[in-house]
Write a structure and sequence with these properties.
Layout lengths: L5 E2 L1 H6 L1 E2 L3 E6 L2 E4 L19 E2 L1 H6 L6 H8 L2 E5 L29 E4 L4 E3 L2 H4 L12 E2 L14 E6 L4 E6 L1 H6 L2 E9 L5 H4 L15 E10 H7 L9 E9 L5 E7 H5 L6 E6 L2 E2 L9 E3 L12 E7 L6 H4 L28 E6 L5 E3 L5 E9 L6 E7 L7 E2 L1 E3 L12 E8 L2 H6 L1 E10 L24 E8 L1
Parallel strand pairs: 1-6, 3-5, 10-19, 21-28
Antiparallel strand pairs: 2-3, 3-4, 4-6, 7-8, 8-9, 10-11, 12-13, 13-16, 14-15, 14-19, 16-17, 16-18, 20-22, 22-26, 23-24, 23-27, 25-26, 27-28
The chain binds ligand MTE and molybdenum atom.
């Protein structure tokens, strides 16, 4: 081992395609797996680690942790890394007292779109592996530093402001956990999911999310309708429910957002004050100890680190409700935009994405002349996914995917649907070697994704739900 050359992280990073050769690291070892990659039992999934460490992937794909696999890996060893643990350079300590000094540890596979605040999505090739997204791989979208909350001191204030009366009540964690526990499967999707595709048409402002700013989880907590009813709140279409988080901006304003009271009071709306995510206590990044889960509604309204709920006659006056997360015409630009004229996004439109194969992946056509494509689909407002259609010939022929989804009534179907499709590849296509796969989903209202981003482009890059198109390479 010692005689082998030493490489830097940058050296490894440069070797991330078959053309430049595929290097990976494991511990301090550097390995060239270019020749092995085509024979990898997990297919091109190994390319997710190209130019990077495989350790975090192996922590999830446990089948690798055997002597045979480790011995096989050693045969590809070409050298050693020059620094310990060097591949993750983000452990630079923040000085004490900095608002960033108390950020939680994150899984190495969450690829940051920004580090402060922390925003990251998992590798797209892993997203459709499991119906319930593992908590540590669930995308994180923070606008501010993560607050540190002592559960013994945690308080949630509920203010009900009606024209003729006002009431206040404070709950501690125990109060909320003693209420009847309600569980709902809900996908949470950022309004900017897939923004990186829209910005290619014409630049938009915002974090460059791929299709991974979404995850699906089982959320448990107290139902907001129970809490509000206990306070005597009656249905009233004019009212809103404002949520505030414990994360403060530099002017000491909390993150905030609101939803219509009608959603909050509807037992079929399944809004919960959640303290569990996939049967685990919420992690700090996902809102410990309590967050609002507003199923079917854009991520921004699912307020984390919830400290205050206000029932009142106006929407939240926060930046995120008023001047962000709204849609506009493709012809509206930063000189003409008037945020007060557009409605805040609530229910999200239908969308889907191809997770495997990944862009530029080499795909083998199987003995039946097909390739297998897998991904997710979801629609807001509790609408079930009715169908996902795939094409490999720009829409001349379409193939219907098989859906994996919960069996819940339409209007109350808040989880995502995973899908698998077998796409026949013609002899002509096989000669071409390059191919583009398109996916479009149809929801229970027969809403369908728009074909092109050109016609739905908007300056903030939200609601980016055009057909998902992925270019792959074919190999025999
Ligand atoms: N809540 C608070 N308090 N602060 C935030 O920055 N971000 C929102 C929402 N709730 C946010 C928040 C946005 S824009 C999204 S998309 C979701 O949380 C992301 O939830 P996640 O990080 O658990 O995936
Ligand atoms: Mo978001």
């Amino acid at each position: 081992r010692e005689e082998l050359p030493t490489y830097s992280v940058e050296d490894v990073l440069r070797h991330n395609t078959p053309e430049s050769r595929i290097w990976i690291t494991y511990g301090l070892g550097v390995y060239d797996v270019t020749e092995f990659a085509p024979n990898h039992p997990g297919g091109d999934k190994i390319l997710m680690a190209a130019g990077n460490a495989i350790d975090p992937f192996w922590a999830i794909y446990q089948q690798h942790n055997t002597l045979q696999v480790l011995q096989l890996l050693e045969t590809f060893r070409i050298g050693n890394l020059n620094k310990i643990g060097a591949i993750n350079d983000d452990d630079v300590g923040d000085e004490l007292g900095s608002p960033w000094a108390q950020e939680p540890k994150r899984h190495a596979l969450l690829k940051p779109a920004s580090k402060r605040p922390f925003n990251a999505e998992p590798p797209i090739g892993m997203l459709a592996d499991k119906f319930y997204t593992p908590n540590e791989l669930f995308y994180v979208r923070n606008h501010l530093p993560v607050p540190s909350i002592n559960p013994d001191e945690y308080e949630l204030e509920l203010v009900v402001e009606l024209s003729n009366a006002q009431s206040n009540r404070t709950f501690n964690l125990d109060d909320i956990q003693k209420m009847p526990k309600h569980t709902v499967t809900a996908a949470i999707m950022c309004g900017g999911n897939r923004r990186s595709e829209m910005t290619r048409i014409k630049p938009v402002k915002g974090l460059s999310w791929g299709p991974g700013a979404v995850g699906n989880a089982k959320w448990s907590g107290a139902r907001l309708c129970d809490v509000l009813q206990a306070q005597g709140v009656q249905p009233d279409e004019r009212l809103h429910v404002i949520f505030e988080g414990a994360d403060l901006d530099p002017t000491a304003h909390p993150y905030g957002a609101s939803i219509p009271l009608s959603k909050a009071l509807d037992p079929r709306g399944d809004v919960v004050l959640a303290y569990e995510m996939n049967d685990q206590p919420l992690s700090r990044d996902h809102g410990y100890p309590i967050r609002a889960i507003v199923p079917g509604t854009v991520g921004a309204r699912n307020v984390k680190w919830l400290t205050r709920i206000v029932v009142t006659d106006s929407e939240s006056d926060s930046h995120w409700q008023q001047n962000d997360y709204k849609g506009f015409s493709p012809s509206t630009d930063w000189d003409t935009v008037d945020f007060s004229l557009a409605q805040a996004i609530q229910a999200m439109p239908v969308t889907s994405a191809i997770c495997t194969p990944m862009p530029e992946e080499r795909v083998k056509v199987d003995k039946d002349g097909c390739i297998t494509v897998r991904g997710y689909a979801w629609s807001g407002g509790g609408r079930r996914i009715e169908r996902v259609d795939l094409t490999s010939d720009a829409g001349k022929t379409w193939h219907v995917a098989q859906l994996e989804q919960e069996n819940l009534p339409d209007g109350r179907h808040y989880g995502w649907s995973l899908w698998t499709a077998r796409l026949p590849i013609s002899a002509d296509q096989q000669k071409e070697q390059h191919m583009e796969i398109w996916a479009k989903a149809v929801d229970s209202s027969y809403n369908v994704q728009p074909e092109a981003f050109e016609n739905i482009w908007n300056l903030r890059g939200v609601l980016a739900n055009a057909y998902h198109k992925v270019k792959v390479k074919l190999s025999q």
